[in-house]
Write a structure and sequence with these properties.
The complex is a heterodimer of chains A (about 450) and B (about 250). Chain A is of the alpha/beta class. Chain A has two domains: about 180 residues, no CATH class; about 170 residues, Rossmann fold (3-Layer(aba) Sandwich). In chain A, about 40% of the residues lie in helices and about 10% in strands. Chain A contains 20 helices and eleven strands. In chain A, the strands form four sheets. In chain A, strands 9-8-10-11 form a four-stranded parallel sheet, with helices on both faces. Chain A has a three-stranded parallel sheet with strand order 5-4-6. In chain A, strand 10, helix 16 and strand 11 form a beta-alpha-beta unit. Chain A is globular, with a radius of gyration of 22 Å. Chain A starts with 18 loop residues before the first helix and ends with a helix. The relative contact order of chain A is 0.13. The model of chain A has no long low-confidence stretch (mean pLDDT about 95). Chain B is mainly alpha-helical and about 250 residues long. Chain B folds into two domains: about 110 residues, Fumarate Reductase Iron-sulfur Protein, Chain B, domain 2 (Orthogonal Bundle), CATH 1.10.1060; about 110 residues, no CATH class. Chain B is about 60% helix and about 0% strand. The chains are: A alpha/beta (about 450), B mainly alpha (about 250).
């Protein structure tokens, strides 16, 4: 039986309409309301990628292609357009918030990649996208955002040379949702504006980061959650822990699907195509119950500046519009997200609810952390759940994980680290590709 | 009470419009021209029927005296006094989620327009921008000097008391806990990941060539001085490294 909208948990029962009855029931909506059916032919919304190919044809830019070697998988976006998701040879564009605050987020992703023999590079030659600061403070501008974008993506293009491999070997995989949204927005302006291209070309030229004297633009800007999405069945095949009793709510990240919405992935087989496909699709493939809730569309309350200096807004919004609804309405066991700021906000802002009359608690994890957990990753060594303020222990108990024993193992592992016996997901000598500390490939081998 | 109807921000940081005297017409026009001159302006503002979908879905509108519909209307009708007034406080309420942009039937981006207004508030060194951004300076220092927005040593109980006792549920020194992350790039405490020296130097060139340092100098001179000192040091380190390579 094909999957239908099942956002109400195990007690939900299908109306069992025939195909004809279902078509009659929904045809009016599809004809009159469904934006996607009106926009599929690109007659109302411009696909910047069409303009991008034209610019390359005119000799204005070079496009970093998702090639066959990246083993791409095609998906459909909001209006039914195609998007190419690379699955191999990936350059990790890290997130400052994840790495600084939720390190189990990227570690879980890399752990999953190791399990699937995915070739990747995690290197030090990258900055954050700088968009968190920009959206929070207004310090920065379109030019600076564009230059940072082009610099980081150029590094992804040339990084493999440090290992004696050709250019364009790795394809960038963006970890942060804000970076993802910001980079797509900036790419659009770069493609549309000759003036912007001209000004940033001077900067990239000075940095030595042009390709054949031209700006390098990526064919697709790809978020890690999109990689997880296309790999979800393979990941589900590695599952070791039954999670069918877990009621999961999904928090879709604003900058992943509200910024440049035409590029976000939707799939008719996932929540009827009525919700963003990433994370939901993965959780369903893993066998968890994905529970819909009334405030699914709301942001988390992060606010960029607000989480630092307007925290009463952030915590009120996170508690009252997200966590409380997920707990009381959806009776959730976990809230799953796919962005840095959301996970931080939703995870850290629960404790303060104790100050009110009705405190709420809910485990908050990124999609890849949950996936790693049910695929047998160590809850502390890999998932690094000790950095989460929310009650991940309750979730682990529901999954049958003896978290106390695992925590004891981790504490013992800390002693091992003191003796210099640290376990890594990759050879540390690969992380520096130039400058002080760089070891040429032959020496590494 | 002298200002019974004032907002919390006005009470805490004052009301620059009320206390600063009238703003000349020429200044108002200059400010609006700066907002309008950004190439994004025409893309972000296409018209407005006052439908209010943006405000209905706006998280900030739940908690602040803020309405994205009002911001769009002020810009659309070129209400220069209203625009200036909104730049004193309201534009800083926006949470930058872009829900408004995703919902607007006209394809406007109120959140995007807010960014143009924030940039302009900084360019004109408005007192409101300086005051609002003061608590954000730690983040700006980290980002501009290292290329990382956030670092592990910034997350501590003193700065985030309302996050509760569980900054880490394993009681061990931060440095040790960071070494227990199985990604070697993350075995750091002062940056989210280890940043290559060349990367930092390249980033400084971007800041300089795009006018970001000038923005910073106008809004917080002390912070600017600290950051330029750090930049000078790292540039010296890079020069030394390059010289060593040449000698070798």
């Amino acid at each position: 039986m094909s999957e239908k909208f099942t956002g109400h948990g195990a007690e939900w029962r299908d109306a069992n309409l025939s195909a004809t009855e279902a078509k009659i029931a929904t045809s009016w909506v599809e004809l009159k309301v469904d934006k996607r059916s009106m926009l599929t032919q690109k007659d109302r919304v411009e696909d910047v990628r069409d303009a991008m190919w034209q610019l390359e044809k005119e000799g204005e830019i070079v496009v970093h292609r998702v090639s066959d070697e990246h083993q791409p998988v095609m998906v459909k976006t909001l209006y039914g357009w195609d998007k190419k998701i690379p699955t191999q040879r990936l350059w990790h564009h890290k997130s400052c918030g994840q790495c600084g605050n939720i390190p189990g987020y990227p570690a879980s992703l890399l752990w999953l990649m190791n399990r699937m023999d995915i070739e990747y590079l995690d290197e030090t030659d990258q900055t954050s996208c700088t968009a968190w600061n920009y959206h929070g403070s207004g310090i920065g501008n379109l030019e600076s955002l564009a230059a940072v974008f082009l610099r980081n993506f150029h590094q992804a293009y040339v990084a493999a040379k440090a290992q004696g491999l050709p250019e364009a070997y790795y394809y960038p995989l963006v970890h942060c949702g804000t970076s993802f949204g910001n980079y797509k927005e900036v790419r659009g302006y770069l493609i549309r504006s000759a003036k912007l291209r001209e000004s940033v070309k001077k900067i990239l030229g000075k940095l030595g980061r042009l390709v054949d004297g031209k700006l390098l633009i990526p064919e697709e800007v790809v978020h890690y959650s999109e990689w997880l999405h296309v790999m979800r069945e393979r990941i589900a095949g590695m599952r070791e822990i039954d999670c069918s009793q877990v009621r999961a709510t999904i928090h879709p990240a604003c900058h992943v699907y509200k910024m440049v919405p035409e590029d976000a992935i939707y799939d008719d087989s996932i929540m009827g195509g009525n919700r963003l496909a990433v994370s939901t699709g993965l959780m369903q493939s893993l066998g968890a119950q994905v529970i819909d809730y009334s405030t699914w569309y709301d942001c988390c309350g992060f606010g960029f500046r607000h989480i630092i200096s307007e925290r009463e807004f952030t915590r009120s919004f996170a508690i009252d519009r997200k966590i409380r609804v997920a707990v009381e309405e959806a009776r959730a066991d976990v809230m799953i997200g796919h962005d840095t700021g959301c996970i931080t906000t939703l995870d850290k802002n629960q404790w303060i609810s104790k100050a009110g009359a009705k405190p709420v608690e809910l485990a908050v994890l990124a999609d890849c952390q949950f996936a790693a957990l049910v695929c047998g990753a160590h809850p502390y060594k890999i998932v690094q759940s000790h950095w989460h303020a929310s009650p991940t222990e309750t979730l682990m108990e529901k999954l049958g994980i003896d978290w106390e024993a695992k925590k004891a193992e981790f504490v013992a592992y800390l002693e091992q680290i003191k003796e210099g016996k640290q376990e890594n997901l990759y050879d540390p000598r690969r992380m520096i590709t130039s400058g002080p500390g760089y070891i040429p490939l032959k020496a590494v081998q | 009470m002298a200002q019974a109807d004032s907002t919390r921000v006005q009470t805490v940081i004052g009301d620059p419009v009320a206390e600063g005297g009238p703003v000349t017409r020429a200044k108002l026009e200059e400010i609006f021209a700066d907002i309008q001159s950004d190439l994004r302006y025409d893309h972000e503002l296409n018209g407005c029927l006052n439908c209010g979908i943006c405000t209905a879905t706006c998280p900030a509108a739940h908690y602040y005296d803020f309405s994205p519909r009002e911001i769009v209307q002020l810009l659309w009708t070129e209400n220069l006094e209203g625009i200036h007034d909104a730049m004193q406080e309201k534009i800083w309420a926006c949470a930058q989620c872009y829900t408004c942009a995703a919902r607007c039937p006209f394809g406007n981006s109120p959140g995007g327009l807010i960014m143009l207004m924030r940039e302009t508030a900084i360019k004109h060194q408005m007192e409101s921008a300086k005051n609002v951004l003061r608590p954000f300076s730690r983040v700006m220092l980290k980002l501009i000097s290292t290329g990382n927005q956030l670092s592990p040593d910034m997350i501590n109980k003193d700065h985030f008391a309302d996050w509760g006792p569980n900054i880490s549920k394993v009681d061990a020194p931060l440095k040790l806990l960071r070494r227990a992350i199985p990604m070697p790039t993350l075995n750091t405490t002062a940056t989210a990941w280890e940043v290559n020296l060349k990367t930092s130097v390249e980033l400084y060139t971007i800041w300089e060539m795009t006018g970001v340092l000038k923005q910073l100098e106008g809004i917080d001179e002390n912070l600017f001085d600290v950051i330029t000192d750090i930049m000078d040091e790292k540039r010296e380190d890079w020069k030394d490294f390059v010289a060593e390579q040449q000698d070798a």
